[in-house]
Design brief:
The complex is a heterodimer of chains A (about 900) and B (about 170). Chain A is an alpha/beta fold. Chain A contains 26 helices and 37 strands. The interface between A and B is large, with 47 and 50 residues.
């Protein structure tokens, strides 16, 4: 700690950090544009000018840029100095000279950093009467809108897009006062993180194109703290609702998880909530040949209660995309032994193995922020850009850790972004990527390895052996792989914070065990290694902790083919789960046909709900509350954003209604979420800490709830006046300490309950500065979420010995391996119109040599038959994938027609029209 | 006694003063144009809707009686898809007019809005939109804004330079 004097008053600051960040942390309103806590300082905009004095006697001083000046002990500066104020006012006047007269029609208006800073410096009247510079806009695709006239040339967009996120197709063009930020030509931005330009841009050059479809100002959104449901990372979000529809997702800073950024799947996937395919009313059919008929909520509950009371043998199928509470409520309804996890046997085994490794082994699962701090990384078998996008962004930061040390030796502070980058040039830390096919992270990889999952696992085991000779050796290892394994081992051992990343992307237990072996070998040889697994769904780990047998066993139970389990069933309740995404279509068909009653509780209609006898409408993440466990093992609470129309209610409330209606022996029904959470924490081992994920519904500040609507919320007495001129009472919320109104505690609530970032004078997202103890650091009061899984002390666990044998090509057969896509693989986000446009189309990927052998070229139709099920033929266009190992074929799993196909599996590939070789 | 007589005398004298009571509604009062009465939405001199659905009137409204939804046409021109004022809540403060950056929303001298049914005081855009410029003739927001709309490309607005040619390499 050092002391500096600001306007003749002493303040404690962190020595070496820049003065702008320290002044903002101290609560001063110092205007700035180009500086960003995650991007560092470049001193481009000259807006944060302050006066610095040599000593107490110096009355003259000199103007310096706060963002480029390190804080040193005893420094004397002035923010309020008249000359500095005048300087800042002139800068903003110059920046505003070409700014168009657009605010009323600009999507950034009301949450614009440029507006805030203009007001802050007192520039209220434009003196300039000359001509303004103009630009043509570009069409940057369905996600980001471009309005280049508004640019103030702060360079934040290129610094984020190119330097931070590794994008290539966007840059600063042209010269001097005509600098243009865009692509070489119109076209969709290629980066998976392009949506962040909306939040990074201090003004309205880049705005949210999906929001434009139903535009609403920041002050009119009803918001609540939420968690993204489109992958397993659990990024914190702020969804905004207006007039009963969900309209946008904004980032909710969580220092330990997503920090300042979101991926495009998370930002734009929300539109499934407004989908035509939503289930909004209960429906029933007595005869499967008839369509489902809408019924009232009472009738539905009555019907099901009779079913349950008549001693129907019932099972429940949970879901990794439903909250812990929803899964637990269903488990309570049907009984623990009749509750099945909604994942296939294969996925279930992978998840169990991950939980085991993280809970029993010595390697810790890092948060996303800790991933950024890793200085040597091995990615084993996971295409993180497509399965856990923000993890890829974190890995792009991790490669800067080792070169950072070079800059430190030259006494360049870490925040001096341009100088650091100039000092380290192309230097980057070790990042090894072993994957099935080429990944988008390859451009920053030190070395790459391509192979089928078994070979990736073998490489992992070889690395583990090279690190710790006690780990089992891998037999018949080719020299190239041995050399690579030695290189990786050396780099990981030399690092201060080595990290191994793997996941369910390969759908192979050996890959996960190999990754664990590498991390454990490092731990056993005295390196503090971390182990990060990517999981596909928002509550994959949470649902796995609740347990339940796998889906195939549920099928067998209903079909009566199961080995003796003591359970027979003819009625099945399926919770927020499309079984056609989990298992083979034919098997699901047989199962649903065999079950006498199929009850589906879900928010989106899909193939499973179309075959159900009873459908109950559940709420999406925006209409319910609950707890999710992310890939780190962090439990986070998401809160209801708005009250949906119709009979939609929480899945756990449906379960509770059925328990009550069936007259089951239950003394005290759950009346709110806290009671479900408490019951769950008490009965499921390992879930006890979820009670601490967020304050309970009884939580009050000064006797008040936290308002979901900001104090400027408009239209309260007119929005529903066309229906009824008498305003309805705001809905009650028994489940959360948040209210559906403008009334409530007006200041900063605890971080887990914070529905928005706003502070007086700070209307833009940068109001976040006021919610952090130190700007760029954790939220005041601690980052939300509570870790459920901690490692055991080192050295207690034996290595995995089940090393697969090397892959051998088979004549006339292909090993079909899974490929994943950021847009398309995940079923919910693929329903959002903006992302549906970008979603991958079904294809079959082949190595070019294999394709040539088959006489196939890009775009030709091929036919795939899996050995497991030769009757089912898939007709797919061919795509050439040079990274794919010969003898394997890549299938983009999860896409609509390819959902539910379990791979890796052997199959035959033929050209359409060619004879199948027998 | 004297006091009572004086009062009667004063009242008697009033019989010869000019009458100030107006026989409303037979006789209409003269109301100044800046009177804050019924709210209207005006059109620009080209006959297009002036309202760009910026939501500032709704935000400024102290009784929250304005609700609208922004949308835009195929050329990017913004307008409200619906615009509703609940006059049964309106206090005719004029803040909406003050907040309006395009002179679209204006208060008029019309105050005759009595209704037997409260719901008849809910005015939609069709009820609010008039065919003229109202109190402020001449102003057209899109002529000064940087946004391109139909018939006005980038660089065509007042005091705008032609768009920068991105392929020009001259310094």
């Amino acid at each position: 700690m050092a002391t500096i004097h600001i306007d003749n008053r002493p303040y404690p600051v962190k020595e070496g950090e820049n003065l702008l960040q320290q002044c903002l942390s101290l609560g001063f309103n110092l205007p700035y544009f180009c500086w960003h806590p995650a991007l560092g300082s470049v001193g481009a905009c000259r807006q944060c000018a302050i006066k610095q004095f040599k000593n107490e006697e110096d009355k003259h001083g000199k103007i310096v840029m706060a963002c480029m000046t390190p804080a040193t002990d005893g420094a004397r500066i002035s923010i309020e100095d008249p000359e500095a104020r005048e300087f800042r006012a002139s800068i903003i006047e110059w920046l505003m000279i070409n700014h168009p007269h657009d605010c009323p029609v600009c999507d950034e208006g009301g949450e614009c950093h440029l507006q805030d800073m203009t007001v802050m410096t007192g520039h209220t009247y434009r003196r300039y009467r000359g001509r303004k510079r103009t630009f043509h806009n570009q069409n940057l695709g369905p996600l980001v809108n471009h309005e280049m006239n508004r640019c103030i040339q702060c360079y934040r967009c290129t610094r984020f897009y190119r330097d931070y996120a590794g994008g290539r197709d966007f840059d600063a063009l042209v010269l001097r006062n005509e600098v243009y930020f865009g692509r070489h030509q119109d076209g969709t931005l290629e980066s998976e993180f392009s949506g962040n330009l909306v939040e990074v841009c201090p003004t309205g050059v880049f705005t949210d194109k999906s929001l434009k479809q139903h535009y609403t100002r920041k002050w009119d959104f009803q918001t609540a703290p939420s968690v993204c449901v489109h992958c397993g990372l659990g990024c914190n979000t702020i969804p905004g609702e207006r007039y009963g529809t969900l309209r946008r997702i904004h980032n909710r800073f969580n220092g330990a998880v997503n920090g300042y950024f979101l991926c495009d799947r998370g930002r734009y996937g929300y539109d499934f909530v407004n989908s035509e395919r939503r289930i909004r009313r209960p429906a029933l059919r007595n005869n499967r040949s008839e369509p489902l008929q809408p019924i009232s909520k009472g009738e539905a509950v009555q019907f099901l209660a009779e079913l349950l009371a008549n001693g129907t043998r019932i099972i429940g199928i949970g879901s990794p995309r439903a909250s812990i509470e929803a899964n637990f409520a269903l488990r309570t309804l049907v009984g623990p032994e009749r509750f099945y996890a909604g994942v296939s046997e294969q996925d279930g085994r992978l998840l169990a193995s991950m939980l085991d490794i993280l809970g029993q082994g010595p390697a810790r699962s890092p948060s996303l922020h800790e991933v950024e701090l890793a200085d040597a990384v091995l990615v084993l078998g996971e295409d993180v850009t497509n399965t856990a996008p923000l993890l890829a962004l974190a890995l792009r930061q991790s490669i800067r850790r080792q070169p950072q040390k070079m800059a430190e030796k030259m006494h360049i502070p870490h925040w001096n972004d341009h100088a650091v980058r100039a000092a380290v040039q192309q230097e980057q830390g070790p990042l090894f990527i072993a994957a099935i096919a080429d990944t988008k992270l390859d451009d920053v990889a030190t070395e790459m390895f391509r192979g089928v999952p078994d070979d990736l696992a073998r490489l992992g085991f070889a690395v583990a052996h090279a690190i710790d000779p006690r780990a089992p050796p891998v037999s018949d290892l080719p020299d190239t792989m041995r050399t690579l394994a030695d290189t990786i081992a050396k780099a990981l051992k030399a690092a201060g914070r080595p990290l191994v990343v793997s996941g369910m992307g390969c759908a192979n237990v050996a890959v996960i065990e190999a990754a664990a072996s590498v991390a454990w070998a490092l731990c056993n040889t005295g390196h503090a290694a971390e182990l990060c697994f990517a999981v596909p769904e928002c509550n994959s780990l949470g649902a796995a902790m609740i347990g339940g047998a796998h889906l195939e066993l549920a099928f067998e139970t209903v079909l009566g083919t199961a080995a003796y389990t003591g359970i027979a069933a003819d009625t099945v309740i399926i919770l927020e789960n499309d079984l056609y995404h989990r298992a083979d279509a034919a098997a699901v068909d047989r199962f649903l046909a065999a079950a006498r009653n199929v009850v589906v509780i879900d928010h989106i209609s899909h193939a499973t709900s179309a075959r159900a006898d009873v459908v109950l409408p559940a709420g999406t993440f925006a209409e319910t509350d609950g707890t999710l466990v992310n890939n780190e093992g962090r439990a986070q609470r998401f809160f209801q954003v708005f009250v949906p129309q119709g009979d939609i209610q929480e899945s756990w409330r449906w379960a509770q209604d059925l328990i009550t209606a069936a007259g089951a022996d239950k003394d005290d029904p759950w009346l709110n979420l806290d009671q479900v959470t408490a019951a769950c924490a008490a009965s499921i081992p390992g879930l006890q800490p979820i009670l601490r994920a967020a304050p309970t519904a009884n939580f009050r500040i000064g006797g008040q709830k936290v308002p979901r609507q900001p104090h400027r919320y408009s239209g309260r007495t007119a929005m529903l006046a066309n229906i009824d001129v008498h305003e309805p009472e705001p809905p009650e919320d028994p489940d959360a300490p948040l209210s559906f109104s403008m009334e409530g505690y007006p200041n900063h609530p605890p971080p887990a309950l914070n529905p928005r970032f706003w502070a007086p004078g700070w209307n833009s997202v940068q109001a976040l500065n006021k919610f952090q103890d130190e700007v760029g650091g954790a939220l005041t009061g601690g980052d939300p979420g509570v870790r459920l899984i901690e490692p055991l002390p080192a050295g207690k666990v034996g290595y995995f010995t089940n090393i697969p044998s090397a892959f051998e090509r088979r004549a006339g057969e292909w090993l079909v391996v899974p490929l994943r896509h950021i847009f398309g693989t995940e079923e919910l986000s693929a329903l959002a119109p903006a992302l549906a446009e970008l979603a991958a189309k079904p294809y079959l990927a082949l190595n070019p040599d294999d394709a040539a052998e088959l006489g196939l070229a890009t775009g030709d139709d091929s036919q795939l038959q899996l050995q497991r099920n030769p009757g089912q033929k898939y007709r797919l266009p061919v795509r050439l994938e040079p990274g794919l190992q010969r003898g394997s074929a890549g299938l983009p799993v999860g896409l609509p027609v390819l959902a539910g196909i379990a791979v890796p599996a052997w199959g035959k590939v033929t050209g359409v029209g060619q004879e199948t070789p027998s | 006694m004297w006091n009572s007589l004086k009062t009667m005398w004063t009242i008697f004298l009033h019989m010869f003063r000019r009458r100030v009571t107006i026989q409303y509604p037979d006789e209409k009062p003269v109301i100044p144009p800046r009177w804050r009465g019924r709210i209207i939405l005006s059109r620009d001199p080209d006959g297009e809707e002036r309202c760009v659905a910026c939501y500032l009137c709704a935000a400024a409204c102290p009784v929250d009686c304005i609700a609208l939804q922004a949308t835009e046409d195929e050329y990017g021109r913004r307008y409200p898809s619906f615009f509703r004022i609940n006059f049964s809540r309106c206090i005719f403060c004029g803040y909406c007019e003050e907040a309006c950056p395009t002179d679209a929303i204006q208060l008029t001298p019309d105050f005759e809005m009595g209704e037997y049914d409260r719901k008849n005081l809910v005015y939609e855009k069709e009820d609010l939109l008039i065919d003229g410029t109202g109190k402020y003739p001449g102003y057209n927001f899109y002529r000064v804004a940087g946004l391109a709309i139909k018939g006005k490309d980038k660089g065509d607005a007042q005091d705008e330079a032609p768009p920068v040619d991105l392929h020009r390499l001259l310094p």
